[in-house]
Amino acid sequence: MRDLxxxxxRRVILAATLVTITITSLAGxxxxxxxxxxxIPIVLTxxxxxxxxxxxxxxxxxxxxxxxxECVEAYSTDQADYYRFTSREMANEFESTLDVGxxxxxxxxxxxxxxxxxxxxxRWAMEQLGGTWQDYEGTYPDL
Length: 143
Hints:
Elements: H1 7-26, H2 40-44, E1 58-59, H3 61-64, E2 73-76, E3 81-84, H4 88-95, E4 101-104, E5 107-110, H5 119-131
């Protein structure tokens, strides 16, 4: 019996199938997760009319992101230290080691190293991070 498909048609079907399988398997990957593109400077330079609660930002990436702490970006402000990771799992794992931490997707706030910060400003800073791109639906830690 004669084949209904030509060799060219078989190659096209095979290629389409492989592309579909690849896209499906990468669906959970950061490549397709828009929150993986949210950087700390985007959070710190929120254009809203709200009070600026991320005062005196200083980049500390070179000082803290290394083999021990595998973050890709870090900033310190008067209210908290911010760390960005390549995966949600790494962010959650790091946040679990902190005395007072807050995590949204890939970014972790460490509030425990800022004892002189206003608790109100720290709460607003958490709400600013949680509200960036309107995705956070969880609770905020007690300060």
